[in-house]
Design brief:
This protein has 75 residues and is mostly helical. Helix content is 69%, strand content 0%. It is built from two helices and no strands. The longest helix has 38 residues.
Length: 75
């Protein structure tokens, strides 16, 4: 019975250590994440651009049948 009780206490100690590390590490993680977002502002917009492109596919306009950039095709 004593071995079982000490095992439960050991699990509580481990959980307390994990919680303490989380409380200490979370603000550090948030600070690093916000610093990264300040230096990479385009990263927040890329997912929005990807979603807007997915919503427009398939486009209602058909693809160009001729390339008018080539002088031979300008007739």
């Amino acid at each position: 019975m004593a071995a079982r009780a000490s095992g439960g206490i050991r699990l509580l100690e481990i959980a307390a250590w994990i919680g303490a590390l989380g409380l200490i590490g979370w603000p550090t993680f948030r600070k690093l994440a916000s610093r990264w977002h300040v230096h990479h502002p385009e990263a927040a917009r890329e997912s929005a651009i990807d979603m807007s492109l997915k919503q427009t596919f398939p486009a209602s306009d058909p693809p160009a049948s001729r390339y008018v950039d080539i002088p031979v095709n300008r007739r």
